[in-house]
Design a protein that fits this description.
Strand content: 15-25%
Number of strands: 11
Radius of gyration: 23 Å
Shape: globular
CATH architecture of the largest domain: 3-Layer(aba) Sandwich
Number of helices: 9
Structural class: alpha/beta
Order of helices and strands: HHHEEHEHEHEEEHEHEEEH
CATH class of the largest domain: Alpha Beta
Distance between the termini: 35 Å
Helix content: 40-55%
Length: 290
């Protein structure tokens, strides 16, 4: 007698494996924690094997769970592809998604992948630039959905999460000790004036040593220990390190990751893209809990 795996339970299993806990998975799937736990229990009972290792602070996978995860991903991908192609054929066209370059990872690739599965006939053009540039394009109507990094939120915006702004420099660098403090920022970087004001308020003299809108130029200057820079925590490249200045530099605040959308009343396509982005940052911001 043939037996069938429950794709809903498989989806919960994959979500738990990806997020490291039932709490995050439940938030991602818009389910209660008890519903996700029940689905996992039924899945383990149907296969008569333990899939999850619950002995640590976060949930891990058993050997059998690792094997199932590979199958489950393929099954869900095929399921979603079939569903998308047979039910979303009435939606086609193009959307523009604007994202500052420093917050493209880790959320946006997963968003694009999930959206392409649900709406295979809709092309999403990713525009990666500075927040000010994206705002200009959004206000002209050239971008349908925009993410920004700001110290507040504007009219019509929605704050998805907050990430600390930190001082960064070359590994083991000494540039942060120099006065005037040597800064390297892109001309259009929205953090630039905020950082200058914080230094002025702290009475720390500074000078701008780079006048460029090339991120590579900034990276080269900072990694050579010729200047310092600020970035959102967790987005710094490997050739930068957070500066442990012990109070010698002013403290910086958390910055908002905001989302702005064009009129969502036009249909479900943009609404669903916004939801995917919102869910992605929600999951990233959740603590890993069993």
């Amino acid at each position: 007698m043939s037996r069938n795996l429950d794709t809903t339970a498989l989806r919960s299993f994959v979500a738990v494996a990806d997020t490291g806990g039932v709490t995050r998975a439940a938030g991602l799937l818009n389910l209660t924690q008890s519903a996700v736990s029940m689905q996992l229990k039924r899945l383990e009972e149907s296969l008569n094997t333990a899939l999850l290792d619950r002995t640590g602070r976060t949930i891990g996978l058993t050997t059998q769970g690792e094997q199932l995860l590979s199958y489950a991903r393929r099954m869900l991908q095929l399921n979603d592809e079939v569903y998308g192609r047979l039910t979303a054929t009435e939606f086609e066209g193009e959307l523009k998604l604007g994202v500052p370059h420093d917050i493209v990872y880790p959320v946006i690739p997963a968003v694009l992948r999930a959206f392409a599965t649900s709406y295979p006939r809709v092309k999403v053009q990713l525009v990666s630039s500075f927040t000010r540039n994206l705002m200009d394009e959004f206000n002209r109507g050239d971008i349908d959905l925009m993410l920004t990094t700001e110290d507040s939120v504007g009219t019509g915006g929605e704050t998805l999460t907050q990430i600390p702004l930190i001082w960064v420099g070359a590994p083991g660098g000494q540039a942060w000790k120099q006065r005037p403090l040597r800064l390297a920022f892109e001309q259009r970087c929205i953090f630039r004036q905020f950082v200058q004001r914080r230094l002025d308020d702290a009475g720390i003299p500074w000078e701008m040593v780079v006048e460029s809108n090339s991120s590579r130029t900034i990276e080269a200057t900072v990694s050579a220990d010729l200047a310092v820079h600020t970035m959102l925590e967790g987005t710094e490249p490997r050739h930068f390190e957070q500066i442990n200045h012990g109070g010698a530099l002013p403290s910086l605040r958390k910055m908002n990751i905001n989302m702005y959308c064009a009129d969502l009343k036009d249909g479900p396509v943009l609404t669903d893209l916004a939801k995917l982005v919102r869910d992605g940052f929600y999951t990233m911001n959740m603590p890993a809990m069993a």
